[in-house]
Amino acid sequence: MVVLAALLAVLMMSALAVIYSKNYSRSIFIEIERHERALDQYEVEWGQMQLELSTLAEQNRVEAIAKQRLKLVIPPRESIIYIKP
Questions:
Q1: Which residues form a coiled coil (predicted)?
Q2: For the chain: N or C, fewer Cβ within 10 A?
Q3: For residue 57, what is the enclosing H or E element?
Q4: Helices (H), 1-85
């Protein structure tokens, strides 16, 4: 009778351990999924920033802003001095 009670207790502890490990596994999986969704969002944002950077750094745009805001002009060819290295 004592052996049967001990086996029943071990069986119950084993069942509770299985339930706990399954629950823990699911919670970790949910956490991983949440981080993967955040990573996907960061990758989209990174792509948008790369596109914005390439747009902002275009030569035509930089030149237009230099002319408008800073009132810069291209010097005449004869006033340009080339220095050889």
A1: none
A2: C
A3: none
A4: 2-56, 59-68
Residue written as tokens 């080339």? Answer: 82
Short-list 62, 84, 66, CA closest to 75: 66
**CB hemisphere CA count around 48 (13 angstroms):** 6
pLDDT in tens, 7-34: 999 999 999 999 999 999 999 999 999 9
How big is the chain, counted in residues?
85
Return the pLDDT at 56.
86
Distance of alpha carbon 62 from alpha carbon 2, whole angstroms: 87
- Distance of alpha carbon 47 from alpha carbon 51, whole angstroms: 6
Q: How far apart are CA 34 and CA 28, in angstroms?
A: 10
Is pTM, for the whole model, over 0.85? no
